[in-house]
Amino acid sequence: MKVLVTVKEVAEVEDDFEIDGTGVDDRYLEYDLNEWDDYAVEEAVQLQEAGDDIEVVSVTIGPERAEETIRMALAKGVDRAIRVWDDALDQDLLDTATKARVFRAVVEEEEPDLILTGVQAGDDAFGATGVALAESVGQEWAAVVNQLDIDHLLAENVARVHRELEGGVEELTDVELPAVLTIQTGINEPRYASLRGIRQAQSKEIAPKTLADLGLEAGDVESSLFLTEMYEPESESDATLFEGSAEETAAELASVLREKGVGAE
Amino acid sequence: MLDYVSLEADLDEEERMIRDTAREFVEERIKPDIGEHYEAGTFPEELIPEMGELGFYAPNLEGEEYDLLGVSETAYGLLMQELEAGDAGIRSMASVQGALVMYPIHAFGSDDQKAEWLPRLARGEAVGCFGLTEPEHGSNPSAMETRAERDGDEYVLNGSKTWITNSPIADVAVVWGRDTSAEDNPVRGFLVETDRDGVSTNKIDDKLSMRASVTGEIGLSNVTVPEENVLPGVEGMKGPLSCLTQARFGIAWGAVGAARDCFETARQYATDREQFGGPIARFQIQQQKLAEMATQITTAQLLAYRLAELKERGDLRPQHVSMAKRNNVRMARDQARIAREMLGGNGITTDYSPMRHMSNLETVYTYEGTHDIHTLVLGQDLTGIAAFEG
Questions:
Q1: Predicted ipTM?
Q2: At residue A125, does pLDDT exceed 90?
Q3: In this predicted structure, what is the pLDDT of residue A2?
Q4: Which of B61, B72, B259, B304 could lock B332 by a disulfide, CB 3.0 to 4.6 Å apart?
Q5: Which chain B residues are Cβ-neighbours of A192 within 8 angstroms?
Q6: What is the CATH number of the domain that holds A156?
């Protein structure tokens, strides 16, 4: 079995920052693996550890700088990685459809049985790449998965999942492989890369691919979305702090909620 | 964290990743609870196997057959630095396990001893401790009274050791004692399993420093060990002293970590805390403190990096390590106090790290060769005259 995990290096912004044009000034950015992808990697590695002969491959769209982040995923147990980059991809913002087209080309080459993505990326937060990819490759999918029955998947080739819906509702679904699952935080506890894993990762492959290598052209990745402006919204805060025992504060909270019209009478 | 002259930019990828994984572990697994452990005087024992799993014990030693990795000395130093940014007690546990227990077994042990202990110690399935200091012999360990008397193919050990990090939770102790059955009573190293008859490992309570660390004694009352438990590869004080050089190397790095954590805490506080209508960081008196702190940390950091280079290429002398241990721990001890000052009254609570570091550093200043003894080691090296001999 082969599992493909899409991963992304995202920029994390410090608490205090300055805007430069349509982005945050580089000085206030730190790059790290997208938090959701960390859970997707962990789920894939747990699957690999539970089964026999399961290969976990990660794929990312990103410049050479991203290799260290990808290497961390390799240190956590991913077997090998693919990094797609091209001058044509060096745009302010890659929209979901563009990313799905690039990943589709990789999927056609790798033919994975299961594709895991994070629910969303911490920077652009579209939350749609996984589902767009499933649509693009014509596979079944389940989004916002917070539980996956690994034993069932290995035995039956079916992903038995819990999906998180709005309002605390969960959906239990069976999805036949091949499929795409978008993984929610909290599904597992991502491991730390061990020093042994870090050592082993130094000799694992990160295969660079250009668009041409994937049979794509610059015209295939023309994003239809672009950033026009970046600004800090005005923020207003109106916080009330209750002090006292649980009983007192609960009563105060209840009266405020009633006042504001929250909850049924 | 403060890296003013970008030393970390020159690390190789493996070193940076080791730093990152250690930093993340400290941030998530140590920092949230360490204040409570410190107050309660407990060591977070659940971290012992976790740190083993991550490869935090003696990763700089070579030997694939014993689950050892042979990472660079810089990577090992970075690991100690990050752990001590969490707490000196955590770093001490890893230092003792790696530099004072695994190192002597690796350097002086038999193949059987290595095979029995190194993989288990590396994985954190077994805990080790190091018995050198005695109640009456601290700075002058060569006057030790612990004795081993040969009896057929066994040795009978008697004596007492104190200020032993990890002893109450240890499975094995590396005990240094004089072999009274051999000519000139040479110092030998013995692997003493703590469940042997006659071994006691009383805990030392009432510490006001290094509270999130377990410290105890080792009592040896007619303890019999087979001769296979003697470390075959070394005789004399160079045995224990060579271990201490390894551990002090880690301390020189660790102190930088504690100081950096103090600095970052103080800088954050100074920019957040508002008095007289603005952040206190705008006052020259606070800026002067931060500037001095950053400068002292950076020079200590440079010394630690240089030490790693010398160690890597085999040119490190114990006196180099004395200078770095002496300088860096003093620096961290002084700067922790400055950081505490900057935090005002909030600084005396367990909510902030500087006073905990400051108090830990009193121990670090004194253990593994006191500050004053390292001064005399340097004095001897510079003049050729030993001030501490008769």
A1: 0.93
A2: no
A3: 97
A4: B259
A5: 21, 24-25, 54
A6: 3.40.50.620
